[in-house]
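User: Can you recover a sequence for this backbone? Please restate the input before giving your answer.

Assistant: Of course. Working from this structure:
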């Protein structure tokens, strides 16, 4: 029997006794029919909540079977707010596994295994807790790690964030969910900032090296060359246009040649200036960094090339 059938067993056989009316010993002495028992009212509210949990769990099962794990998670979570049952908690954690949110799934499975079940709990409750222990062991093997190293700055001077959250340690493995992550490194107090997107494969240890200092291969670029090139281009273009207009009115080979030279120089100057500005804007962080990271694919292989050039 698979754990996917637990919520339905919960709603049919297993929870039948747990959701049944209280015994006479629980209710106490019989009262007149005209009197209202506060305890009976409490049981009525509990019964309503359990009925709601049953319906929400059934809807969650349908969504899970359709592969809509985000939606299924919502309905299981709503069901647990009304009736805290291990089979529902197991299904909710399984949604996180399907979504690749292994760290959250581990936390929920851990909480489920650590719950103290009351005596005489339904068999399905006990089995759900046992299956949670098995899934927990599997998840621990699947959670990857990311190790970030800044090669040219001491740790106290660097601030690292992974997906917007501060990284607790530098040059030490950090447990992350498999998939793509955004790593940002910056010097404390401002200065250089480097952003990297990296894909961390499931169950693997991945290392990312970041340099915050300018590379000799790509030093900081001045705008002066671009401005000069644009200026030369503008002058050449102007000369070419003026001489071209003059050449059109007179049969002067010299003016035609001057116009062609001016237009050519103008085009080259403008093109060079624009290129220098573009290269400078792309490399404004002051260094070139190329990152190769493994991307898991259906056949288990593949490479992803990312970086700023």
């Amino acid at each position: 029997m698979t754990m996917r059938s637990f919520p339905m067993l919960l709603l049919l056989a297993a929870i039948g006794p747990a959701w049944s009316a209280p015994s006479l010993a629980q209710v106490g002495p019989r009262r007149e029919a005209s009197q209202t028992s506060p305890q009976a009212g409490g049981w009525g509210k509990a019964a309503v909540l359990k009925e709601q949990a049953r319906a929400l769990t059934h809807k969650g099962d349908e969504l899970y079977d359709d592969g809509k794990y985000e939606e299924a998670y919502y309905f299981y979570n709503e069901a647990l707010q009304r009736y805290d049952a291990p089979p529902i908690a197991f299904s909710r954690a399984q949604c996180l596994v399907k979504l690749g949110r292994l760290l959250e799934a581990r936390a929920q499975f851990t909480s489920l295994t650590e719950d103290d079940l009351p005596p005489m709990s339904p068999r399905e409750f006990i089995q759900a807790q046992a299956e949670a222990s098995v899934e927990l062991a599997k998840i621990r093997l699947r959670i990857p790690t990311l190790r970030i190293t800044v090669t040219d700055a001491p740790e106290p001077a660097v601030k690292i964030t992974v997906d917007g959250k501060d990284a607790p340690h530098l040059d030490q493995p950090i447990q992350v969910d498999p998939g793509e992550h955004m790593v940002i490194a910056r010097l404390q107090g401002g200065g250089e900032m480097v952003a990297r997107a990296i894909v961390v494969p499931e169950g693997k240890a991945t290392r990312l090296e970041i340099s915050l200092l300018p590379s000799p291969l790509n030093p900081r670029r001045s705008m002066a060359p671009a401005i000069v090139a644009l200026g030369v281009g503008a002058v050449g273009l102007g000369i070419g246009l003026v001489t071209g207009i003059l050449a059109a009115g007179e049969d002067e080979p010299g003016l035609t040649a001057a116009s062609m030279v001016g237009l050519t120089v103008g085009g080259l100057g403008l093109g060079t200036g624009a290129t220098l500005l573009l290269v400078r804007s792309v490399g404004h962080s002051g260094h070139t960094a190329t990152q190769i990271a493994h991307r898991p694919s259906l056949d288990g292989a593949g490479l992803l090339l990312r970086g700023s050039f």
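That completes the design. The chain has three domains: 3-142, 145-216, 224-282.
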